[in-house]
Amino acid sequence: MGNSFGDRFRVTTYGESHGPAVGAVIDGCPAGVAIDMDFVQLQLGRRRFGAPRQEEDVVEWLSGLENGITLGTPLAFHIRNKDARPEDYAHLAHLFRPGHADYTYYMKYGHQPTGGGRASARETAVRVVAGAIARQLMPEVGINTEAEPTLSVTEENDTYGGIVKCRVTGVPAGIGEPIFGKLNAQLAAAMMSIPSAIGFEMGTGFAATRMKGSEYADKWNGLSPHPLTQTNHCGGIQGGISNGMPVEFRVAFHPVVSTPQPVECLHEDGHLQTVGIGGRHDRYHIDRAAVVVEAMTALCLINYML
Amino acid sequence: MGNSFGDRFRVTTYGESHGPAVGAVIDGCPAGVAIDMDFVQLQLGRRRFGAPRQEEDVVEWLSGLENGITLGTPLAFHIRNKDARPEDYAHLAHLFRPGHADYTYYMKYGHQPTGGGRASARETAVRVVAGAIARQLMPEVGINTEAEPTLSVTEENDTYGGIVKCRVTGVPAGIGEPIFGKLNAQLAAAMMSIPSAIGFEMGTGFAATRMKGSEYADKWNGLSPHPLTQTNHCGGIQGGISNGMPVEFRVAFHPVVSTPQPVECLHEDGHLQTVGIGGRHDRYHIDRAAVVVEAMTALCLINYML
Amino acid sequence: MGNSFGDRFRVTTYGESHGPAVGAVIDGCPAGVAIDMDFVQLQLGRRRFGAPRQEEDVVEWLSGLENGITLGTPLAFHIRNKDARPEDYAHLAHLFRPGHADYTYYMKYGHQPTGGGRASARETAVRVVAGAIARQLMPEVGINTEAEPTLSVTEENDTYGGIVKCRVTGVPAGIGEPIFGKLNAQLAAAMMSIPSAIGFEMGTGFAATRMKGSEYADKWNGLSPHPLTQTNHCGGIQGGISNGMPVEFRVAFHPVVSTPQPVECLHEDGHLQTVGIGGRHDRYHIDRAAVVVEAMTALCLINYML
Amino acid sequence: MGNSFGDRFRVTTYGESHGPAVGAVIDGCPAGVAIDMDFVQLQLGRRRFGAPRQEEDVVEWLSGLENGITLGTPLAFHIRNKDARPEDYAHLAHLFRPGHADYTYYMKYGHQPTGGGRASARETAVRVVAGAIARQLMPEVGINTEAEPTLSVTEENDTYGGIVKCRVTGVPAGIGEPIFGKLNAQLAAAMMSIPSAIGFEMGTGFAATRMKGSEYADKWNGLSPHPLTQTNHCGGIQGGISNGMPVEFRVAFHPVVSTPQPVECLHEDGHLQTVGIGGRHDRYHIDRAAVVVEAMTALCLINYML
Fold first, then answer.
1. Do the Cβ atoms of B181 and B240 come closer than 8 Å?
2. Which residue in B177, C31, C53, D132 has its CB near the most CB atoms, within 10 A?
């Protein structure tokens, strides 16, 4: 289980990194919407930028569209894995790479997927497509990210993480559900589901723990003119519900765990073995993560706004 | 919607802060389990410690138990709000306090709940009861928290936030579902649903963004003897699935937004009005939050472990 | 699990027949609706008519209402079982009555609930309350039943079943979801969840299997004046979606399985034992079932119409 | 919405009758199961028997399998619509055929799908594939149907309905969830979701309404030797939970609504127009329905038995 996101605009994804394709079914898309496929392809292109595998990422649509207009029935699409090279992973058979999901998948499923399987970042291509559809259903919402890779470090023989800041404008007040359906809670789940995500904070976030309450509580401007409050420490959400200010949050991504240097892997039989795992220095890791952050933000919001 | 948590051990909560009671129904509890009610009451007592309202917090059980043994049918309970004092809030009618959910609830529901309604921390008493039941279904799991309130600040006329560190032992490898059901994603949602939560991080968290990949990826110890890895930067979860190491995360809580000083509230008609909102300096804010963190951790895990 | 119905107006029920109370939580009720409690009590009274246990059936509300107006938060209520008499069932300990759920509950849960537990018709009181709330959210919908008990049989020393015909007016065209969310499929599930229900048919139902297609397919009248079609063999639903004609269906109820004569029960140790189980001739079995049919119809429709 | 079935073995289907393909994603299939694809193809072949459109029905698998063994990740597959002929339906543009879902889809979605779209029986091919997978996860369960088409009627210029009897052996006692998750309720929903289904009854069904309680309540045989009861009027389910007897039910199917004779269609502009709609006499309508009944039975049971 665990391959669906959302209840009103429900995306169910599938596909292994080195299988025939990755894809999804979207249930809940309204009828009669003209989809801009160039926008979808643009987002896919942004996600691929500098990607290790140069997939062409052509989206094939199987359902839910007629002449580019949604039918109200499920949207189904897939992207072929034209560049799947399971043989590149032959030397890693029976080995658990450090920091990867090899060991945990093995413990859960009794086997280890080739090339990361569902744990690979390849899977996020599908989310980007779904997110690009969702954004077209909310034209008034603006989702903007700023990638902050750790670029002070220029050592070529290693990998680095970073932070993605996201600012969402155009979310009206009143979006979110109390208690477990809080908008911030759902955003947190959405962001932490992205590969390599390791932290999430709304507004001022962890730094707010060092503030006094008299500083933290955002002071009113009065109802008009906007903005509503003088500061936005809470990130636009109070009690789990949007207040009409921009929704602002940050997502921390740990360094890529496939490093250029050889690493000690754990063999299924218990011994340690040093091998090269094919990682490489990649400046654009966080830029690509930002595209997925945008997509997941859209998938989160659309479930409240349909 | 949004008042249910979990799919296999589903808790549905109800109750306004100043209504007759708060309570919940738990669907999915196995039959034949003897419940230790002293443990439940102990957790409720920990949550109340220093609480502004001195509820007795007596749990009344209406369903699902016979002679203290679960029947397999829904567990239902409530806690009466014996100390509800809606009149304490009369001077706040039509006023939106800064930092509270007054305005957002008003925008969503068209009315403003007395004394915070569902947005009040009162609601968390119910989660503590449900979490105390869940923990008894997983006796091998240990959930320990450390509260780090911002106590360097001793100014009595203000409020402060802090951080709760949580360490969970006894979670076997293989717990979690790929993609959207990742254990870290569900933990994030669970924690961010707690009132005042404003940040979440697994393991090394935001600090990991400043590490090299060669440092970050936890090195193997070999399968035995335990521990599995030399460090635990990932917080015990890889690819959304537990690896058998302790599950470790931190939750940031912003300062209490009811401060002792008078504050400028926004009136429904748009003008600003300065009033006292009855906040007080409270050293135990974060200690109480820690009890709810423990409860939500249990509610999160039980859905994977049943 | 299995104690919730609906996704947009979700009712979660609890309570054993001979426990302290039966009750429910309703998540998804809109804010700002004035609830007519006399109507709720009227429906409860109709359900009790001739009931073996003379509960007063007073509904206590714990959440979601202020001055009789819904808050948008969960509605929670319970009805105390003032007349619970577990001692009446002492002679049935360890015995599985024929036709009852005693044996199946025992096989599922490892114990046998006193007096039927959740399998008792007592549980339907809660559905009647929830249905009475749902109906007030759809004032344009009329739900009418006709009870057809098998009253040609007047033998006082036995029990009988019957049929409930239901006719729903005011359902606009376009209600229902294709494939698994078909309105007729959800109605079928709703009706078959009622104790003693053993058959369900839409419109002409089983008799339609003996018709020619040229007779069965309802002929158009033209779009105006109404009715839309000359006949209503399909019961107002085509492809799982309402067509604006009355929604019509019938539900078959088997005879009450607690009969006045002594019966052979199966003892847990495997021997058969003849005992009296306290059944009685009751002319109003089907009339009461009709009230529950109405409630479940409302609970079914509201999930499409909110 | 409405395109998913099940919570533990969740099938989400997609595809229009005259679009590129029909397909599904199955979430919840365990890892390590060898799938017999010949069995899948056999069931697909049974469903096609005598089908108006001679699709080859080749299943393409995109996810969840490696060397024919399940990975534990989502199974995804589609079947191309090689024989789609939307032009066959050109003369029906803007016309609502009697008895079809043309009008209701139009009212719901604002457009009318070509050739029935999702309402076409073509969609059931996908369910047959999913059901054939589910059956392989329950080798001890036997699902057998008997088709009873109305073949006393031999008039070639019309269409007929019939009844499918289903008998399921090997279901252990204790399968089902009380109240809304009753096995009979879920079977009812599953069966009524099949195109043309118009009635459902468990065991003795509607005929039970004419029995006395003393006849209806199945008499015990004692725990051994089997069978458990002397008769099976209840169809193997009591209180929504299986008792270990065969699960028996019947599904009524109304006549095919595409008849050979020309019929009066309703035009979008309100006038009536007589056209031929291409129906034909087909003896095997009910035989094919029986294959879908078997598939849906498997999909229903697997959600309780995983």
1. yes
2. D132
The ipTM is: 0.96
Summary count for chain B: helices (H), strands (E): 6, 16
Round to whole Å and give the CA distance between B184 and B164.
16
Are B223 and A266 in contact by the 8 Å Cβ rule? The answer is yes
Closest by Cα among A116, A192, A154, A144 to A282: A154
> What gap in Å lies between CA B234 and CA B243, rounded to an integer?
10
Supply angle C-alpha B186, B256, B55, rounded to 5: 85
Among D266, D217, D296, D264, CA closest to D107: D266
Among A20, A111, A114, the residue with its CB nearest the CB of D62 is A20
Does A176 contact B104 at a Cβ distance shorter than 8 Å?
Answer: yes
Q: How far apart are CA B118 and CA B2, in angstroms?
A: 12
| Alpha carbons A146 and A47: distance in angstroms, whole number | 14
Asked if D82 is an interface residue toward chain A (Cβ–Cβ < 8 A), one would say no
Per CB-CB distance under 8 Å, the chain D contacts of C111 are none
- Which residues on chain D are in Cβ contact (under 8 Å) with A66? 16, 19, 114
**A178 to chain C: which residues are within 8 Å by CB?**
73
Q: What is the pLDDT of residues B150-164, one digit of tens each?
A: 987 667 889 999 999
Cα angle B36, B41, B44; round to 5: 135
From chain A, pick out residues whose CB is under 8 angstroms from the CB of C7. Answer: 7
Say if C73 is an interface residue toward chain A (CB within 8 Å).
Answer: yes
Are D178 and B7 inside 8 Å of each other by CB?
no
Rg (chain A; Cα; Å): 21
Overall number of domains in chain B = 1
Q: What is the CATH number of the domain that holds D291?
A: 3.60.150.10
The alpha-carbon gap from A243 to the nearest alpha carbon of chain B, in Å, equals 5
Residue contacts between B and C (CB atoms, under 8 Å): 134
Length of chain C: 306
Mean pLDDT of B209-221: 95
Return the beta strands (E) in chain A as ranges.
4-5, 10-14, 21-27, 59-63, 65-66, 69-70, 75-80, 95-96, 142-149, 162-169, 197-202, 237-238, 241-242, 247-253, 263-267, 272-275
Q: Which domain range does residue C43 map to?
A: 4-305
Per-residue pLDDT tens digits for D21-66: 999 999 999 999 999 999 999 999 999 876 656 667 899 999 999 9
C212: helix, coil or strand?
A: strand
B240: left (phi > 0), else alpha (psi -120 to 50), else beta? left
How high is the pLDDT of residue D140?
Answer: 97
Distances (CA, A) of D87 to A46, D18, D84, D90, D92: 39, 10, 9, 5, 10
Closest listed residue to residue D188, CA positions, set D232, D240, D233, D238: D240
Indicate the residue of D107, D217, D241 with minimum beta-carbon distance to C99: D217
